[in-house]
Amino acid sequence: MENSLTNSERRVGIISWALYDWANSAFATVVLAGFFPIFFKQFWAPQFDTTESTFLLGTANSIASLSIVLIAPLVGAMADHLERRKAFLMTFTALGVVMTGGLYWAGEGEWFLAILLFVGGFLGFAGGNLFYDSLLAFVAKPEHLDRVSALGFGLGYLGGGLLFSINIWMTLSPETFHFADKTEAVRFSFLCVAVWWALFAIPLFLFVSEPRKKKRQFSKKSLSGGFRQLIQTYHQARALKHTFLFLLAYWLYIDGVDTIIRMAVDFGMSIGFKPESLIIALLITQFVGFPAAIFYGYLGEKIGAKSGILVAIVIYIGITIYATQMDKAWEFYFLAIMIGLVQGGIQSLSRSLYTRIIPKHQTAEFFGFYNMMGKFAAVIGPFFVGWLTIITNSNRIGLLAVVVLLVLGGMLFWRVDVEQAEKAVQNDLEK
Predict the structure, then answer these.
(1) pTM score over 0.90
(2) What are the counts of helices (DSSP H) followed by strands (DSSP E) for the chain?
(3) Cα–Cα distance, 413 to 147 (Å, whole number)
(4) Are the CB atoms for 256 and 320 separated by under 8 Å?
């Protein structure tokens, strides 16, 4: 069905698909990396000292990641079994929107309620990404996977940065927006994310076509069929040697990347940077990330996705080591620029490379494993950083845990043979 699309229909599909990144990146920017860590320390958990709140924040991130780890492969298999990836995406989007909006009603000191809503919002965000990623194979031609994947991440950085800028303006000048104070402005920002996410997700559901060969309705057989397909896919992934090796490598290096994203603001606050400086740094990352991600898509087509990812891993190792030494605001801004240059690139090229080395008719279940590995890693990363910070009483030493993950991931990824992986998938399909 996707092969019969006209060029105009394909372009509309690509733009509509990429706009979902614009939509849900508001959660990643405003909630995950921006206001939630700061607001958690200052409003929801002011009764704890910095090391205790860092531990709670790391634990919250780990619980959120563990939640998606437990369900991603199964729901992915069910979506492929039913051939209803968009329906599952809509369900998780609704969950994320409702739970994120609910943060507005979490009162001062209600740290446990805030964590519950955050975990639910993250579950909707990460679960939705599973099905969003799985649709890439249907909207882009194989030769354009790097470019289209990068477009999604690029629009995500731009959209997330734009809404974040408006929300920051709200907090800096609450009276302009008729808010009582900065606290009310920050709380309203969570509602803004929910509306933004819901609104810009609509084009994907209207204009992205999902081929369906069979018409199956959800039932108990869908669940059992999903379990059977999950087991089959696991053995299939193990048989695809280089695809499985990529998953192991991705598990490690994306953990380092995600941990930096999630814990950067908390780390900056813990070593004495003002919240205003950290917010500026996040905006720098967003707006640098937009053109950098687009450029990385073209770079992937020129030098190969594998080479681009390896370059990004090396830069991330340098960034992490540098971060443990910084003590001035301008150094944090420089760090933000460097992260912006490679963050979207490593994410988009990982997605497009993986799309190439999995069976097209099983994208949701294979991306279930992809998300499982990425998010299971994120269970370890933030918790490991928080735990190491507690036992050493040093946020700087705690951050060094990220370097270990990046190095190990890079060493495994070096051994992935992309051409052999593509041939193995083709041979698997021909059996």
Answers:
(1) no
(2) 17, 0
(3) 21
(4) yes
Residues sharing a CB contact under 8 Å with residue 38, sequence separation 6 or more, in sequence order: 265, 269, 275, 278, 279
State the sign of the Cα–Cα–Cα–Cα dihedral 301, 303, 309, 314. Answer: negative
Range ranked top by mean pLDDT from 61-70, 74-83, 191-200, 315-324: 191-200
What does the alpha-carbon distance between residue 143 and residue 145 come to, in Å, rounded to a whole number? 6
Assess contact for 364 and 79: CB atoms under 8 A: yes
Rounded to whole angstroms, the Cα distance separating 223 from 217 reads: 11
Residue 204: how many other CB atoms lie within 10 Å: 25
Q: How far is CA 401 from CA 85, 289, 292, in A?
A: 36, 24, 26
Kindly list the distances between the CA atom of residue 158 and the CA atoms of 21, 60, 301, 404, in Å, as whole numbers in the listed order: 10, 27, 22, 31
Is the CB of residue 125 less than 8 Å from the CB of residue 90? no
Query: Three-state SS for 375?
Result: helix
Residue with tokens 């030493």: 397
Residue 165 has pLDDT above 90, yes or no: yes
Q: What angle do CA 57, 61, 64 make, to 5 degrees?
A: 140
Distance CA 338, CA 319 (A): 7
Query: Distance (Å, rounded) from C-alpha 350 to C-alpha 308?
Result: 9
Out of 3.30.70.1350, 3.40.47.10, 1.25.40.10, 1.20.1250.20, the CATH code matching 2-205+220-430 is: 1.20.1250.20
Measured in degrees and rounded to the nearest 5, phi and psi for residue 110 equal -90, 65
> In the structure encoding, which two tokens stand for residue 430, read together?
């021909």
What are the structure tokens assigned to 225, written together? 């069929």
Would you call 125 helix, strand, or coil by DSSP? helix
Write down the pLDDT at residue 1. Answer: 45
Helix axes 50-82, 85-102, angle to 10 degrees: 160
Nearest CA-CA partner of 65 in 344, 366, 371: 371
pLDDT tens sequence across 177-212: 999 999 999 999 999 999 999 999 999 999 998 876
Structure tokens at 46: 């002011």
What DSSP character marks residue 106? P
Q: Are 425 and 243 in contact (CB under 8 A)?
A: yes
Mean pLDDT of 103-132: 91
What residue spans of 173-240 are helical by DSSP H? Answer: 182-207, 220-239
